[in-house]
Amino acid sequence: MDRLGWPVAAKLQRKWFAGELNYANTDKGAVLGINQDGNPFPPNMIDTTTIKMDWVLKFPRAKAKLDELLEEKLFNPDAERVLRFMSRNWESSPYVIDAWKRCDGDWQKFHLGYQYQLATVDSDWVSKGLMLGAGSVTPVLMDDLYGALGAFSFNAALSKFTYFNGRLKIFEINYYVRDVFTFHDRTDRNHEATGTQYLGNWNKYGLIVVPEYAVLGNVSKAQMPPVARNAKVDKENVFYTVRNLDYREWQLKHRQGGDLVLYSNRYYMRLREPMVFDFNR
After folding, report:
1. What SS3 class is residue 144?
2. Are the C-beta atoms of 208 and 198 separated by less than 8 Å?
């Protein structure tokens, strides 16, 4: 990754390998940050410094999704429904609530308690790039953002607001990036993962993609042999297959390697006029 010019992705990989044994083994755990013991990820597995919002916004596809969140989804009907549901747990008070202070600066409490809307930057766009870039050292459309975060979300959360007699008045929101850096394979309705995500073929010099392996990974956990580019069997041209399952097996063998919850720094949006919702209606 360093050779590809992916410094943030490389940093996260190093942190993952150096971390204590910590991994999500359920779909819920992969979303919320619940580990193999059924506990929330420990504090040292909550990374709030590696991902910077300014860095994320250098990538046009990410900027477009943030614009969608702030310009189209911030207070749309879906957001209102979530806020209405959240308000059931609030005490009525005319005083301004500072959500971050109320959570004592705990990122997980803040996110789980006050996040109400999101826009997802998915990785489906990469599929075409994988096909177009098959066999190249740096597949088309793959970059440091993809290597570091893959699919992730921009999130909106309440920052400063009042809630009194069923009336929510929002003065300020926070927005930020969140991702769970995990190698968990999502399961089907029977809670089984039939395949394991293909992550490319790698060596010390770069990355190539084998489209057949990408397809096979969706349905099978079978071993996928190394690939010799241009039929040249040397250290620069033999690329070794990497999958989610390989990370899990490494963790269990070495009793080390930690999945992470990643948060960027928070940005603030002070509303020119408070946004008001009357939940008595």
Report:
1. helix
2. no
87-124 pLDDT tens trace: 998 999 999 999 999 999 999 999 999 999 999 997 65
What does pTM read for this prediction?
Answer: 0.90
In DSSP notation, 178-198 reads EEEE--PPP--TTS---S--E
Backbone phi and psi for residue 182, each to the nearest 5 degrees, phi listed first: -140, 160
**CA 42, CA 34: separation in Å to the nearest integer?**
9
In this predicted structure, the answer to whether residue 153 has a pLDDT above a threshold of 50 is: yes
Which two structure tokens, joined as six digits, stand for 52? 């910077």
What is the spatial distance between Cα 190 and Cα 59, in angstroms, rounded to a whole number?
A: 37
What is the per-residue DSSP string for 77-98? Answer: HHHHHHHHHHHTTPPPEEEEEE
The pLDDT of residue 191 is 66
- CB under 8 Å, gap of 24 or more: what pairs does 127-133 form? 127/214, 130/209, 130/211, 130/214, 131/211, 133/209
Give the CA dihedral 252, 254, 256, 260, nearest 10 degrees: -50
How is residue 243 written in tokens?
Answer: 């999958």
Is residue 173 within 8 Å of residue 182, measured between CB atoms?
A: no
Q: What is the pLDDT of residue 211?
A: 85
Name the nearest CA neighbour of 237 among 228, 224, 248, 225.
228
Give me the long-range contacts of 99-106 (CB less than 8 A, separation at least 24).
99/157, 99/158, 99/159, 99/160, 99/161, 99/174, 100/159, 100/174, 100/266
Answer for the pair 97, 171: CB distance below 8 angstroms, yes or no: no
Predicted pLDDT of residue 281: 75
pLDDT at site 131: 44
